[in-house]
Design goal:
With 89 residues, the protein is mostly helical. It has helices at 15-25, 32-47, 52-57, 77-83. The chain is 45% helix and 0% strand.
Length: 89
């Protein structure tokens, strides 16, 4: 039952830590829920905190749509089929 609640918490980090976290967790391979959090953090760094230079330095933040499942990478069908097949010696 503990995971059924929203828990508020505070994260304190320096600019380097924030850049690393935001760039890493906003990538298309990430889960949509934490991608949205990372994208919002990047927006807040620029608009609310007023750190435009730091926001400009974050070159790898991905602001693509988090709701589409097309952004998730998957293996090609031929590779998936070969996972379950074994060759006989």
């Amino acid at each position: 039952m503990a995971l059924a609640f929203r828990i508020r918490y505070v994260m304190q980090m320096n600019a380097r830590e924030a850049m690393h976290l935001i760039e890493l967790r906003s990538s298309p391979q990430g889960h949509p829920s934490y991608r949205r959090v990372a994208q919002e953090m990047a927006r807040l760094v620029r608009e609310v905190a007023g750190h435009g230079l730091i926001a400009d330095a974050m070159k790898y933040v991905d602001f693509s749509d988090t709701d589409s499942n097309d952004s998730r990478q998957s293996a090609p069908p031929s590779e998936i089929a070969s996972i379950g097949s074994f060759s006989q010696p």
